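Protocol step 4 of 6: structure prediction from sequence.
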Amino acid sequence: MKKNYLLILLLFTTLGTLFAQQEKGITGYENWLKSWTEFKPNKVVYNKATKILTGNIANDTKLYKSDTYLLVGDVFVTDSTTLTIEPGTVILGDFKTKGSLTITNGSKIIADGKSTDPIVFTSNRSVKKPGDWGGLIILGDAQTNIIDNNAKIAYGLETLDAKHISYGGDNLDSDSGILNFVRIEYAGKRTKEYGYLSALTLAGVGRKTKLNNVMVSYCQGSSFKILGGSLTLNQFVSYKSNYNDYEINYGSQCNLTNSLAVKSPYVSGPETSRALYVLNHDEVPNTDFSKCQTVVDAKNLTLYNISNDLEYDIKVGLVNEAIFIGETATFKIDKSVISGFNPAVILDNKININSDNLDKIVFSRTYFNNCNGNIFIKNKSNNEDLENWYGSRAFNNVYSKGPDSETFIDSNNAKNPDYRLRINQIVASRDD
């Protein structure tokens, strides 16, 4: 009996240690990236298209794994239609016409892949590059803070009906469908008037929409753009995009959990590129402050900048901050990892540093590693007070200068990297 008790005690101790190792950053007893993600998408060869998607899809439609589909031009799912995509289906964005897919307000997408059979959106070119095609756009009728709640996606999409690019309403419970085990590769076409598209745009998307296990890689624009709405993103991955990884604006109520952003200073575009770009609005006159304002609640994120020579890359200006937070936005992050940035966080200089605003911007139980400074005010040279505030024991943050090989379990694995934190090797902390 005593022997059994000791075995049970040993088991719980071991499980507790494993849990502790994975407490900060992306978490899981196993590497959940392993089965469905692809970190070398340029090495994957897909079948040529057997069917074409173009114009408007106005009747319920199902796409099958046995076919390969080509998005030609701007394709719209309209008239409260449901587009269902079978696990394992491949949809190619046409390079020549810069194909895109928009799920209009009131319609749905059911893209419910499997970990062993993900749904893939990618370029139709043999040699793929960022910006080869448009991206996936989902529009809903959840609330934004834009005046009159009547917004349009200004991406230059070709449609004769304005309702096909409109989003927003009062239905926070709206349901735009399912994205699960989906990869989006080489999206983010450039437009002359509107800049780059994002790989996945979620505009006015409501909380009944199920959003899990979505990977964006090598996007020319932002990986994920969230405009208004009320939604939860779980196990999302942004890999080596040129612009922002997660861009959140227009009064979005966004929960972001157990998700990853991997940046590289060698693929970023000319504009400042961040892992998280959190705003409440673009222009005050266009904002209704009586409605929902941007609230981001983030937990177990890993924001990681890969660099061959971090000190040099910072010196020549290739590395930016991981997180930028704009005025009147609420942002809270817990149990996360921010590694290799310059600095970790920048707060807009329009934010008055007082108790009310600091209560809205919280960093707790987060591991800051190899960052050239931690939390700064934009264009302010002395940020000692802010550093001391977030460095106090009350927030239980950790500060370290550990090499990547000792920080992550296996970040150098080219095919199956493991970005979970080696929490048991953290030795540095602050006692300000």
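Step 5 (inspection) to follow. DSSP finds five helices and 32 strands in the chain.
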